[in-house]
Each structure stands twice: as structure tokens, then as C-alpha cells.
């Protein structure tokens, strides 16, 4: 295998824990039923996965790799299930250290949506995933008509993207904090996972957009690649002409395709991610608004404040002093 060859894993419909064992066996790592450890000369992978009631799985993955890693979903399982993938844009610690990731946001898809996820080389990836069967969800979905139930019970292929608000992100960070083996509370993964699903129900209920049905796997792969590799650097505005050349389509077609998955054209999505990163830094760091505006390439602090208020409905100063720390 060449140094920068892509590494591909396709569990072919296997249970996730069987797939982790396959992953570990293939790369000389270990899987003990809850924790995955893989360390080679080109990757460092840590994974945790906890299953409840044989139908509800909460997992956490962190991966650094010198090669692109592709996970495939090509074989449809017998059971209909939903997967929620929640990424982090960065983790901020009180000692001032920052670890940046490139996949903030929420992707929800069902088990009939064929897809590839490619994690780019040289960038940290960390995410929480929640996977549950439709039959498990229906035990708790007693109301007859709400958007989440309509979405989950649709067995045609679909995928939805949502931005990650502070309420959901706080649960994601709390799940990650609970990984310490000496202090781990297993039921905590279940309760926080359920809370995230409940918060998503509210988010989906407010979303007027129809869910995205039967997205072509190659289109999905390309647009996730665009998001992860070109929209996570807030110091430089994306150049649509260059992106058009790279992906071999006109700017208008590129924007239409991107919007079909992520709800917004490229620059609108980028600006939303930037203002949400500002929100994240206000909560999780001690940086001043001036420092944040400079780091995120706002023209001045007043520009940051106005964009923030337009997006969230309140000024950024309302958050100062409300720092949240899930890492100490």
C-alpha cells in the first residue's frame, strides 16, 4: 500500500460491533466489546461504543490519519435503523489548548441510504453517533403525527443535515467527558443519547424543509468532501470559481447540489458555520470578542456582533461569563 493510499472499510451490513472487530483485526488493533484501539505508522484511532436494550447504540470516535479513510455503507441490513452523526468543530480546554476538528454539524440518515464517508488525511475527526432501530424509536413515539416520526418511518433512502445548537452540543461534550473508564457511568450514555434525540425532535419540527430523499452516493461524498476540506478554515472566504474548477461543475450547479444536502448555498453555509464557531468560542474560551472577531476574519468586532445578533436573536455579550467546561 502506498503511503497516501486511501484505506477503505465496508462492514457489508454487519452489526457495528462486528465491524469494529473487523476494523481492529485488519489494522492490528484491539476491540474488547466497548473500546477500540488502533495505532499504526499512519493512523491513531480511539473508539467507544455502548449498546442498550439490543437496539440503541451510542458511540464516540476520534481519528487522526495520514491517509484518507473511507467508510462504506453498501449492503442494506434486514432491520430498518436510523443513524445520527454529531461532529465537533473544536474542543476548547481551560489550559488554552485547542484541538480542531473538521466535521461540526449533525447528519441523520436511514439504513437504506447508500453512502461513503471519507475522512481526509492530516485532519482530526471526532464525532458521536447514535444508532437505533425504528422499532425501538416507535416504542417511545406515542404521538401519531410529528415530523420526526414521519421522517424516520419513511423507508426510502434519505439524509438530512442540521446545524448543531448549544443545547445539543453540550450533550455531545458531556458524552465525551463520560468516557474516562475509571469514572464512566454507562447509563449516562443512554440518557444523554435520548436527550439528544428529543432535542432533535424539536429542531426537526421547526424545520420547514422536506427531507432529502435518495441522494446519489457520489454526490453525497463530493459535497461532504467540499464541506470538510474547504469550509472549515474561517480565515479565508471560499473561492467559488476555484471550487467549481475542482469539482468539475458550474458554480450554480455546485451551489444547487450543495444546497440539496446542506440546505444552504456554499457561502451562506460557510457564514452560518463561522457565526456558530463564534458562539462556540464565546462559551468555551476566555477570548475577548475582539480576539474572536480577528481570529474568525470578521472585518471588525461590530461586524461580528451584528451578524451574531441577526443569527441568534441576542448580542454576544449576553453569553460572556457563561463559560461551560466539560473537560475538567
UniProtKB/TrEMBL annotation:
Swiss-Prot/TrEMBL keywords: DNA-binding, Transcription, Transcription regulation
SMART domains: HTH_ARAC
Keyword Membrane: no
Cross-referenced Gene3D superfamilies: Homeodomain-like
Tree of life domain: Bacteria
Domain HTH araC/xylS-type: 221-322
GO MF, one annotated term: DNA-binding transcription factor activity
UniProt cross-references to PANTHER family, sorted A to Z: REGULATORY PROTEIN PCHR
Protein name: Helix-turn-helix transcriptional regulator
Amino acid at each position: 500500500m502506498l503511503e497516501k493510499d486511501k484505506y477503505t472499510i465496508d462492514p457489508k451490513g454487519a452489526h457495528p460491533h462486528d465491524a469494529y472487530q473487523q476494523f481492529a483485526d485488519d489494522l492490528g488493533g484491539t476491540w474488547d466489546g466497548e473500546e477500540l484501539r488502533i495505532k499504526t505508522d499512519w493512523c491513531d484511532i480511539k473508539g467507544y461504543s455502548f449498546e442498550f436494550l439490543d437496539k440503541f447504540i451510542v458511540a464516540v470516535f476520534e481519528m487522526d490519519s495520514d491517509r484518507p479513510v473511507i467508510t462504506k455503507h453498501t449492503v442494506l441490513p434486514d432491520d430498518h435503523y436510523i443513524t445520527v452523526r454529531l461532529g465537533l468543530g473544536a474542543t476548547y480546554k481551560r489550559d488554552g489548548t485547542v484541538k480542531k476538528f473538521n466535521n461540526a454539524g449533525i447528519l441523520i440518515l436511514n439504513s437504506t441510504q447508500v453512502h461513503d464517508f471519507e475522512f481526509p488525511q492530516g485532519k482530526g475527526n471526532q464525532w458521536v453517533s447514535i444508532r437505533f432501530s425504528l422499532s425501538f424509536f416507535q416504542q417511545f413515539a406515542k404521538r401519531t403525527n410529528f415530523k420526526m416520526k414521519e421522517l424516520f418511518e419513511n423507508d426510502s433512502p434519505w439524509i438530512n443535515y442540521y446545524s448543531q445548537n448549544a443545547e445539543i452540543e453540550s450533550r455531545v461534550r458531556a458524552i465525551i467527558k463520560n468516557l474516562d473508564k475509571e469514572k464512566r457511568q454507562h447509563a449516562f450514555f443512554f440518557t444523554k443519547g435520548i436527550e439528544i434525540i428529543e432535542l432533535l425532535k424539536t429542531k426537526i419540527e421547526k424545520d420547514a424543509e422536506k427531507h432529502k430523499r435518495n441522494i446519489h452516493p457520489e454526490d453525497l461524498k463530493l459535497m461532504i468532501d467540499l464541506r470538510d476540506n474547504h469550509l472549515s478554515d474561517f480565515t479565508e472566504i471560499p473561492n467559488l470559481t476555484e471550487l467549481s474548477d475542482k469539482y468539475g461543475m458550474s458554480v450554480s450547479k455546485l451551489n444547487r447540489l450543495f444546497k440539496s444536502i446542506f440546505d444552504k448555498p456554499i457561502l451562506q453555509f460557510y457564514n452560518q458555520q463561522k457565526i456558530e464557531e463564534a458562539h462556540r468560542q464565546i462559551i468555551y474560551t476566555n477570548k475577548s470578542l475582539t480576539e474572536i472577531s480577528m481570529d474568525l476574519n470578521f472585518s471588525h468586532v461590530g461586524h461580528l456582533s451584528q451578524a451574531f445578533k441577526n443569527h441568534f436573536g441576542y448580542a454576544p455579550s449576553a453569553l460572556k461569563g457563561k463559560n461551560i467546561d466539560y473537560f475538567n
